[in-house]
Amino acid sequence: MTARVRDIRQAFGAERMTAQRETLARVAGAMGGAFTIDDLAAEVRKREITLGLATVYRGVAALERTGWLERVGERDGSALFARCRAGGHHHHLICTGCGRIEAADCPLEEIVGPAESATGFVVTGHEITLYGLCPDCASAQRD
Amino acid sequence: MTARVRDIRQAFGAERMTAQRETLARVAGAMGGAFTIDDLAAEVRKREITLGLATVYRGVAALERTGWLERVGERDGSALFARCRAGGHHHHLICTGCGRIEAADCPLEEIVGPAESATGFVVTGHEITLYGLCPDCASAQRD
DNA sequence: TTTACTGCAAACAATTTGCACTGCA
DNA sequence: TGCAGTGCAAATTGTTTGCAGTAAA
Predict the structure, then answer these.
(1) Which of A18, B27, B30, B78 has CB atoms 3.0–4.6 Å from B36's, for a disulfide?
(2) Do A125 and B131 lie within an 8 Å CB cutoff?
């Protein structure tokens, strides 16, 4: 689950690599689910490392730029990010209980076609995020 | 397109109706598409009416509570709202050219069902946004 | 040596809230 | 009349930015 060294090295693409950025990529890669900037900063702090909040924001933005991280939605007004390894076109299911994230297939054709003909738009991209409870959290809630 | 009197009366459900709220519901109902709080406030101002910004926020929240308005996404960090047909699921198309937004019906079940059975999640909410070019921008781009 | 990255604090923008006041029901 | 709704301004909150110092390349 933890990101490998090769991944970390490539996380920032052609941009400059620093100790802070390595920490950022490493911790983000080990988060295991969707996380906010605050979650990430807290996790970094747990490792006894201090990073300026602005550095975290800028680092995450850079990781998003290279595609290493993906913005997958929002929670309580904060942006949610995740390292998603699923290849190809897909969307995300985010567990509102534990932040766990799963990839979901995209029923693109069934949505886009009708939408285009109904509105005259030419659809070039889209974003679909589903929120819910993963099996564990769902069963925990039933107790 | 303009909301009828009956609609306005029911917009706030059992909550108290005031002159400000009537204005709010009337203007929101006449917006024709998605709008931000700011758009709405500006439109109200055009009618030579003054409403406190907090009143607009609280009024929109109330309209959302009753289902009369729906939060449909965000633009430049501001929440986007729209008056949508009650009950029906739908998604939105955002024009990357001019920012114009259109709503279209959406067969949500076709996304949620398969996603739930594939992952074991219980889906409780969703965010769907399509990006593309509206007819005007699409033809402008061809020139 | 160049200049991108960092940290801090101040700046920002959207939204919320406290409080006294007003006016529906 | 009572209490929900209003208006203002101050407070919050997530995020961005200016700037001087530090360190990759």
Answers:
(1) B78
(2) yes
